[in-house]
């Protein structure tokens, strides 16, 4: 098990190296650079040239890349060209928002998706099945930003049940410890601040959960249907086990492998999905930050974001692989 | 009996929650929530970049600076005229190169130290003696734009500094000496980048130490956490994780104290999201209202304020890439082909006007007697035929994914203008480009852009800030070399007498419209909106709104 984990972590190094080189070259191949974004319509060619030179952007790409790697080894991702703050600091302040949002979305997606998929399979061909299959198709098809917009228009703007933007009401003046606002509220016993932060997570959480929810419903349903037809289920039923034991211990557990794999993949995708959701809800996470960085040609932020996504993706999938042996003891990680 | 796994998981989460609960101290003061009636949350489009306005050129940083700091002179409330700020009065010497400012007394910085002539000199000397990375155009953009250079320039692109020296004659009298007469003095000193900071705070937080490497500029602590001015609001906190910046009332303010106790700027980058946040009560005002939202918001009872137009949208014609465009008749034909009134009526916000000059009529030096190119397609065709350019084909650049105060919907503007051009037989080749950086790069360098539109919002109330920026030297954007025009600009800029300078601006506007380097299209009034119960704010053409006078109707 230990060797497995180490080996998987070591695989990260060539992955990150290749990815960063590719991205580094690709980003700098894009026409224009941060200097135009910084100066706007006020820039002259001379001013732009001076900024390019001062940022070292006029040097050969490999020289720039070498400097990037040397810094990366010290876990320094450089300074954002648009905010002039360290990229690591920026991410530390914004990453907790994205994590809170992703966890909320995943809790919604898993909490509703697995039971719904399971029930749909058990009642195959009946109304609930049709509703959940049709609903999940809609969930996959509706663009996240559109759903986010509609949710906001109805539940924030018209009904006023939920806040329409941000992570917390700024007039609360809440204390910041970890920048995980819910956790901070609990830690400092500022219960109103924790509740307010949770309240702010509901609408963006639902919007972000829509696609993973739909996928989890479909995969759970398909997987449960397959397992229901297995011989061992029939044997278990024939043995006279209670329906509850057959369902919980045999059917559900055996259908979970593909579902868990999909949850792992979805978690990685959530980070990219957050770019849209966070922008629509003015939610301060890395998603919204990166959306701005693209327009600003903020190379260090974009590089940092992709590298962090890659690391999160690898770590989440490592957890998924480890969970296989937990769900199905026949699977051994080596 | 062993607990089932889900039950165990729930129990574990509950134990963890109990374990963290109350494990850290709350630093919230009891009054921070306050009454909602003296807390205004205002939605802005972006985070401020930096809190020291010496290093800022983006609108959001300057908006914060205008509440925290004050300048020697400031624009009149709701206008562009130069009026007293920290200085009560100012007079130039006979040569027009040394200006004596008489300062207000009894003013204190937020850290309790006194504002005086010495403090003014500390600030000017700090900017003038900038070294290293503080000389990057990315860092001190406005100083470089206005003053042109530093005591010791470290880059060949920099010129001789307009600023020469500062002398504190007594506690309330200060002399600012300049190397030449310039139209920029004193008007440009109203820019927030010339805000006066507390010398003690500048030293305490090492404010001039712009560090890092050329590639990774790092601002000093002062610029991110300790801005210390004399303004009606004091900086309280900048919560990057919640995209909010909080200011609190300066109880020791020398003038009328702010009516709000707390002013919070909350970043909501998307325009629609700002509108929704206003409607749902999350915020009590926002800036950059979409032109299409002005009337609906007014009808709903929101307080929509229209700023007097202080901008210009123009169609630029590049004479370098296409030799036909160097022919004045072709440029005149383009001007006559455009139905600018139809554009203003259909695509721009209420109150927009067709432009006759390259600056709005609120700026002194505007000239109503210039050559006017009215909408006349027949004349356009005739001029094209005379110039032998009946089969003219032009590359027309327009930006995507952007709205500017002077240009609410670039694609619509492009479609109308290109239809006008096609109607007189000009073949238009559309080139849409992403605003930043592609469009700005393509239209301000090289010579592959025949036509494009761009605009400008004035920084301060002097005509040179508009026409000088566009036409006082050779630029790739326009691709012409007109030494006589450039000389005329130099002469106007170095005229000390304001009245005489205004006359020269009028002559310049005439010369520009005869030469017709491009076509001035329109001036659009941008709007800002406040909640139904918020009053006391006057819209400013320079976006110099003063939140200190804002209050909630009881």
From TrEMBL, chain A:
Subcellular localization is given as:
Cell membrane
Q: Which UniProt keywords apply?
A: Cell membrane, Membrane, Transmembrane, Transmembrane helix, Transport
Q: Which GO terms describe its cellular component?
A: plasma membrane
Give the UniProt record's GO annotations in the biological process aspect.
transmembrane transport
Q: Which organism is it from?
A: Micromonospora endolithica
Sequence ranges assigned to domain ABC transmembrane type-1 in this UniProt record: 95-324
Q: Transmembrane helix as a keyword?
A: yes
SUPFAM superfamilies the record matches: MetI-like
Its membrane topology is listed as: Multi-pass membrane protein
Does this UniProt record's set of keywords contain Membrane? yes
Q: Which family does it belong to?
A: Belongs to the binding-protein-dependent transport system permease family.
**Pfam families for this protein:** BPD_transp_1 (PF00528), BPD_transp_1_N (PF19300)
Q: Quote the protein name from its UniProt record.
A: ABC transporter permease
Q: Where are the transmembrane segments?
A: 9-27, 101-121, 133-155, 197-217, 257-290, 302-327
Automatic annotation (TrEMBL), chain B:
- This protein's record includes keyword Lipid metabolism: no
* One GO cellular component term: periplasmic space
Please name one Pfam family that this protein belongs to: SBP_bac_5
Signal peptide start and end residues: 1-21
The UniProt entry, under Gene3D superfamilies, shows:
Dipeptide-binding Protein, Domain 1 (3.90.76.10), Dipeptide-binding Protein, Domain 3 (3.10.105.10), Periplasmic binding protein-like II (3.40.190.10)
Q: Which residues form the Solute-binding protein family domain?
A: 81-475
Designated name of the protein: ABC transporter substrate-binding protein
Q: Name one GO molecular function term.
A: peptide transmembrane transporter activity
BP term (GO), one: peptide transport
Native source organism of the sequence: Micromonospora endolithica
**What are the record keywords, sorted?**
Signal, Transport
Regarding protein family, the annotation reads: Belongs to the bacterial solute-binding protein 5 family.
């Amino acid at each position: 098990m230990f060797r497995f984990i180490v080996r998987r972590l070591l695989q990260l190094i060539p992955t990150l190296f290749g990815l960063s080189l590719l991205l580094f070259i690709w980003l700098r191949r894009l026409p224009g650079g941060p200097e135009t974004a910084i100066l706007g319509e006020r820039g002259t060619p001379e001013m732009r040239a001076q900024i390019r030179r001062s940022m070292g952007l006029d040097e050969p790409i490999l020289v720039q890349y070498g400097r990037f790697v040397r810094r990366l080894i010290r876990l320094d991702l450089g300074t954002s060209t648009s905010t002039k703050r360290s990229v690591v600091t920026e991410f530390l302040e914004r990453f907790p928002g994205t994590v809170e949002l992703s966890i909320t979305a995943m809790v919604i997606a898993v909490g509703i998706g697995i039971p719904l998929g399971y029930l749909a399979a058990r009642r195959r061909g009946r109304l609930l099945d049709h509703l959940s299959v049709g609903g999940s198709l809609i969930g996959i098809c509706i663009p996240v930003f559109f759903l986010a917009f509609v949710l906001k228009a109805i539940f924030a703007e018209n009904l006023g049940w939920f806040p329409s933007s941000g992570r917390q009401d700024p007039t609360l003046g809440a204390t910041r410890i970890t920048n995980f606002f819910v956790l901070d509220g609990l830690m400092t016993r500022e219960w109103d601040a924790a509740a307010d932060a949770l309240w702010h997570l509901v609408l963006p959480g639902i919007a972000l959960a829509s696609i993973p929810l739909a996928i989890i419903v479909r995969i759970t349903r398909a997987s449960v249907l397959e397992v229901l037809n297995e011989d061992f289920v029939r044997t278990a039923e024939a043995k006279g086990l209670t329906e509850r034991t057959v369902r919980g211990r045999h059917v559900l557990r055996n259908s979970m492998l593909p579902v868990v794999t999909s949850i792992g993949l979805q978690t990685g995708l959530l980070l990219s999905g957050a770019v849209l959701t966070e922008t629509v809800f003015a939610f301060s996470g890395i998603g919204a930050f990166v959306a701005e960085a693209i327009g600003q040609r903020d190379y260090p932020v974009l590089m940092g974001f992709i590298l962090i996504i890659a690391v999160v993706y690898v770590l989440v999938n490592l957890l998924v692989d480890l969970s296989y042996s937990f769900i199905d003891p026949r699977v051994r990680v080596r | 009996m062993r607990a089932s796994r889900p039950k165990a998981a729930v129990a574990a989460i509950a134990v963890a929650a109990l374990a963290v609960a109350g494990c850290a101290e709350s630093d919230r003061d009891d009054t921070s929530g306050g009454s909602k009636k003296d807390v205004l949350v205002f939605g802005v489009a972006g985070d401020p970049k930096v809190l020291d306005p010496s290093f800022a050129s983006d609108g959001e940083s300057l908006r914060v600076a205008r509440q925290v700091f004050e300048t020697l002179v400031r624009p009149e409330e709701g206008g562009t005229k130069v009026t007293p700020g920290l200085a009560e009065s100012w007079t130039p010497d006979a040569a027009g190169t040394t200006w004596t400012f008489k300062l207000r007394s009894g003013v204190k910085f937020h850290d309790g130290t006194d504002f005086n002539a010495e403090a003014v000199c500390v600030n000017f000397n700090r900017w003038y003696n900038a070294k290293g990375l503080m000389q990057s155009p990315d860092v001190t953009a406005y100083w470089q734009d206005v003053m042109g250079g530093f005591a010791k320039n470290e880059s060949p692109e920099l010129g001789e500094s307009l600023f020469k020296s500062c002398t504190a004659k007594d506690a309330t009298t200060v002399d600012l000496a300049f190397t030449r007469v310039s139209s920029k003095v004193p008007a440009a000193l109203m820019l927030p980048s010339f805000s006066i900071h507390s010398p003690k705070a500048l030293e305490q937080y090492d404010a001039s130490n712009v560090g890092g490497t050329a590639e990774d500029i790092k601002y000093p602590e002062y610029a991110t956490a300790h801005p210390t001015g004399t303004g009606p609001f004091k900086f309280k906190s900048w919560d990057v994780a919640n995209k909010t910046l909080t200011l609190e009332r300066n109880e020791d303010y020398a003038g009328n104290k702010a009516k709000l106790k707390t002013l919070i700027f909350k970043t909501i980058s998307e325009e629609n999201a700002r509108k929704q946040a206003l409607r749902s009560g999350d915020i009590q005002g926002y800036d950059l209202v979409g032109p299409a939202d002005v009337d609906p918001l007014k009808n709903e009872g929101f307080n929509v304020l229209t700023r007097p137009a202080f901008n210009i949208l123009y169609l630029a014609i590049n004479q370098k890439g296409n030799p036909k465009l160097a022919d004045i008749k072709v440029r005149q034909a383009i001007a006559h082909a455009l139905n600018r009134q139809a554009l203003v009526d259909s695509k721009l916000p209420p109150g927009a006007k067709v432009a006759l000059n390259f600056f709005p009529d609120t700026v002194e030096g505007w000239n109503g007697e210039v050559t006017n190119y009215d909408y006349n397609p027949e004349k356009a065709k005739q001029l094209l035929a005379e110039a032998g350019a009946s089969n003219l084909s032009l590359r027309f650049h327009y930006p995507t994914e952007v709205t500017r105060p002077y240009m609410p919907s670039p694609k619509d503007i492009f479609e109308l203008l290109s239809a006008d051009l096609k109607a007189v037989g000009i073949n238009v080749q559309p080139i849409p480009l992403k605003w930043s950086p592609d469009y700005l790069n393509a239209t301000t360098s090289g010579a592959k852009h025949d036509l494009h539109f761009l605009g400008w919002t004035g920084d301060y109330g002097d005509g040179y800030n508009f026409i000088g920026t566009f036409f006082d030297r050779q630029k790739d954007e326009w691709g012409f070399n007109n030494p006589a025009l450039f000389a005329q600009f130099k002469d106007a800029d170095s005229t000390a007498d304001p009245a005489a300078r205004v006359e020269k601006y009028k002559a310049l506007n005439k010369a520009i419209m005869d030469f017709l380097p491009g076509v001035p299209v329109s001036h659009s009034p941008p709007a800002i909106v406040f909640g139904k119960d918020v009053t006391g704010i006057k819209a400013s053409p320079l976006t110099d709104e003063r939140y200190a006078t804002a209050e909630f109707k009881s």
